[in-house]
């Protein structure tokens, strides 16, 4: 009994730091944010009356400025997610496949090279890409002028502004997805590839019928985490385009920050943030259910084939 209690106490002490951090830096801020969202909360006023669901209602009221601000930001955020997530998954997988085909002596070098940008802050990434893409003095436009081509307004016109933000994001974060895929590829049993080679399977068939099904859980994880990260995009559009041209690259987090600190309305900004969190949770749940339905469908088809045999 003493050993059991001591073991439980040891386990509790290991979990305690995480639990304290979770409560202090996640649970309490969420609860406090929900509380603020039910109030008219001006940063410069001590009078912060309870307004109930009024902030949420205003977001869905077509005559309210919150409606246009929220849904413009949401629409631009969805555009960024649609543009970036498939590329983050596909390019990350392709890089992983290429690196794993290299001699093991140099694999570590290329892993490091691709992963280094991920550990750099977004402000540094934005400065690098501003230097490359500036319309008047950017390095890329300088090269275009040498070739006799007109400069491209990378950061001041659509669709170039979105292209620039997506390229910078991929260059910055692709190393993380690549590492996850490399670890997954290393877990694929070599016996499966050897058996397929004996049967005369091509590299393409090995990829489709062995590699992708085996690493499917990691692909789902990468897809979900990339979606969540892309939904939280802020630094790239804020630092590179300032939401321009106009407000065409102003994502939802930029709208929330502007409402909170420029307009000084924490109540409505908190309501927008809560709705954003609910949308992200809903998207994640849908992704999990689609994957589960796909897995169940595959299991049923395999079972029927087994019964037929």
Automatic annotation (TrEMBL):
Keywords: Cell membrane, Membrane, Transmembrane, Transmembrane helix, Transport. The keyword Lyase does not apply. One of its GO terms (biological process) is transmembrane transport. InterPro entries: ABC_transporter_permease, MetI-like, MetI-like_sf. SUPFAM superfamilies: MetI-like (SSF161098). Residues 74-287 form the ABC transmembrane type-1 domain. It comes from the Bacteria. It is a multi-pass membrane protein. The chain crosses the membrane at residues 12-38, 80-100, 112-132, 160-182, 215-234, 269-290. It is found in: Cell membrane. Belongs to the binding-protein-dependent transport system permease family. This is ABC transporter permease. It comes from Halalkalibacter okhensis. The lineage of its organism: Bacteria, Bacillati, Bacillota, Bacilli, Bacillales.
